[in-house]
């Protein structure tokens, strides 16, 4: 008989781990070791104090985790599944740390990699990959969260410079960032007058009026008129930074505009990358909460026996493990499709909706296994559940992803 090799997590009821290659598992194990060594011993303090550990940013760069799914410019060029596993292990440590990697790599670096000019790519991507520079992604506004098409931030071409006015909200890392990818509306007249904006954006609607389109700009955060203020107090994502950003007549050079993919498809392509990371990351948070509950249930004695010996507790543990296994299978399927170039937008919505919803329920259930002790920062489930309130909301709420899937099923747009 051959020896049976058991999965590394008791939540893996179906030996899904055997579906990963040796290279994929090596990435997972390297990031897991980092989380065990640098995140878990410190996260209760970081979360309790509301501190983002900026000192670990260069370490994340050394591990190749910043823009790790991108090619060139010092990026690691890893597969989608490898990137997913890295997100999973980081979020098992804390959602705030995984969010940093997603903002830096999936949003900021992806925007520059997908839509930037060669000069912009050479200037920023190597530094961002090494963690020598930090970026933020300014799309969401105080009055335009789920509906970015209604944004009010605008950029005008004045004397060979872009002048940007507007406000953004819930912008991760903005107060410590070196560069901001700011999305603003630009008239086609101004775009047509800018060589860097590309004449392809010039278009006339039937009544002869000019359109406005959403365009991206690289804005140094040291620019006059750029202000970022951390949002406090928060009950979620406390080991992370989210900010209000105000832009008052911020002037940037004419070539600060991202020349490629004008329109909302520009930021949406980046959001899909971030949503993909959430599909995996939320599984990590759920797994960590489950393992904390399982360990506690085996050690905590009530009524003369371990809590794990009670039928109701076993039912909770079984249901949590089942949901985590299903979420892991969904993440793996989506990752394989992405690596094969066959992933469609509605599939990412299915994964984000299901796995974020699953994870928050698992973490809440895990907290009940811990009883009153579960409301302290000595244990991870409630911290994960609080973080997942944000994860479930950003990069598209449940409602938004439900309507994306509804549109896919019916062919009917129900947003408006």
Could you name the key traits of this structure?
416 residues; alpha+beta; Butyryl-Coa Dehydrogenase, subunit A, domain 1; Butyryl-CoA Dehydrogenase, subunit A, domain 2; Butyryl-CoA Dehydrogenase, subunit A, domain 3; four-stranded antiparallel beta sheet; three-stranded mixed beta sheet; 12 helices; 9 strands; elongated
Order of H and E elements: HHHHHHEEEEHEEEHEEHHHH
The percent range for strand residues is 5-15%
**CATH domain topology of the largest domain:** Butyryl-CoA Dehydrogenase, subunit A, domain 3
Class from helix and strand fractions: alpha+beta
Catalytic activity: glutaryl-CoA + oxidized [electron-transfer flavoprotein] + 2 H(+) = (2E)-butenoyl-CoA + reduced [electron-transfer flavoprotein] + CO2
Keywords: FAD, Flavoprotein, Oxidoreductase, Transit peptide
Organism: Myceligenerans xiligouense
Pfam families: Acyl-CoA_dh_1 (PF00441), Acyl-CoA_dh_M (PF02770), Acyl-CoA_dh_N (PF02771)
Structure explained in plain terms:
- This protein has 416 residues and is α+β, with helices and mostly antiparallel strands.
- Helix content is 48%, strand content 14%.
- The protein has a four-stranded antiparallel β-sheet, with helices on one face. Strands 1-4-5 form a three-stranded mixed β-sheet.
- β8 (301-302) and β9 form a beta hairpin.
- Residues 199-209 have low confidence and may be disordered.
- The chain has helices spanning 22-39, 43-49, 57-62, 80-93, 95-115, 118-130, 188-192, 265-299, 311-339, 345-370, 381-393, 398-410, and strands spanning 135-138, 154-158, 161-172, 179-187, 212-220, 226-230, 242-253, 301-302, 305-306.
- The chain contains twelve helices and nine strands.
- It has three domains: 16-130, Acyl-CoA dehydrogenase/oxidase, N-terminal domain (Butyryl-Coa Dehydrogenase, subunit A, domain 1); 135-262, Butyryl-CoA Dehydrogenase, subunit A, domain 2 (Beta Barrel), CATH 2.40.110; 266-410, Butyryl-CoA Dehydrogenase, subunit A, domain 3, CATH 1.20.140.10.
- It is elongated and about 80 Å long.
- The chain starts with 21 loop residues before the first helix and ends in a 6-residue tail after the last helix.
- It comes from Myceligenerans xiligouense.
- Its cofactor is FAD.
């Amino acid at each position: 008989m051959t020896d049976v090799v058991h999965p590394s997590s008791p939540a893996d009821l179906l030996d899904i781990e055997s579906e990963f290659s040796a290279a994929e598992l090596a990435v997972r194990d390297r990031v897991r070791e980092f989380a065990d060594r640098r995140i878990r011993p410190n996260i209760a303090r970081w979360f309790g104090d509301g501190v983002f550990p900026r000192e670990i940013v260069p370490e994340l760069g050394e591990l190749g985790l910043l823009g790790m799914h991108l090619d060139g410019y010092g990026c690691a060029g890893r597969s989608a599944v490898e990137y997913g596993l890295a997100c999973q292990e980081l979020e098992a440590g804390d959602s705030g740390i995984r969010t940093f990697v997603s903002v830096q790599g999936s949003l900021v670096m992806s925007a520059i990699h997908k839509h930037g000019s060669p000069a912009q790519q050479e200037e920023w991507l190597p530094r961002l990959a090494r963690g020598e520079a930090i970026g933020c992604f300014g799309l969401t506004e105080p009055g335009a969260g789920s509906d970015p098409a209604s944004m009010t931030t605008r950029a005008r071409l004045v004397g060979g410079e872009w002048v940007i006015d507007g406000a953004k909200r819930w912008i991760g890392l903005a107060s410590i960032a070196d560069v901001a990818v700011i999305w603003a509306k630009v008239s086609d007249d101004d775009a047509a007058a800018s060589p860097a904006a590309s004449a392809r954006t010039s278009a006339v609607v039937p009544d002869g009026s000019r359109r406005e389109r959403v365009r991206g700009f690289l804005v140094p955060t040291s620019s006059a008129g750029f202000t970022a203020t951390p949002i406090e107090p928060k009950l979620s994502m406390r080991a992370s930074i989210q900010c209000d950003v105000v832009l008052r007549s911020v002037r940037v050079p004419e070539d600060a505009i991202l020349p490629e993919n004008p329109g909302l498809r520009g930021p949406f392509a980046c959001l899909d990358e971030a949503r993909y990371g959430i599909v995996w990351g939320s599984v990590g948070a759920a797994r960590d909460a489950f393992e904390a509950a399982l360990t506690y249930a085996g050690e905590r004695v009530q009524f003369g026996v371990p809590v794990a010996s009670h039928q109701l507790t076993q039912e909770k543990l079984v249901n949590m493990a089942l949901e985590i296994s299903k979420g892991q299978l969904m993440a793996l399927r989506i990752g394989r499709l992405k690596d094969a170039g066959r992933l469609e937008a509605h599939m990412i919505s299915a994964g984000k909706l299901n796995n974020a919803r699953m994870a928050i329920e698992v973490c809440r259930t895990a907290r009940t296994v811990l009883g009153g002790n579960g409301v302290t920062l000595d244990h991870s489930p409630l911290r994960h559940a609080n973080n997942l309130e944000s994860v479930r909301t950003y990069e598209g709420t449940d409602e938004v992803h439900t309507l994306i899937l509804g549109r896919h099923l019916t062919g009917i747009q129900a947003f408006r």
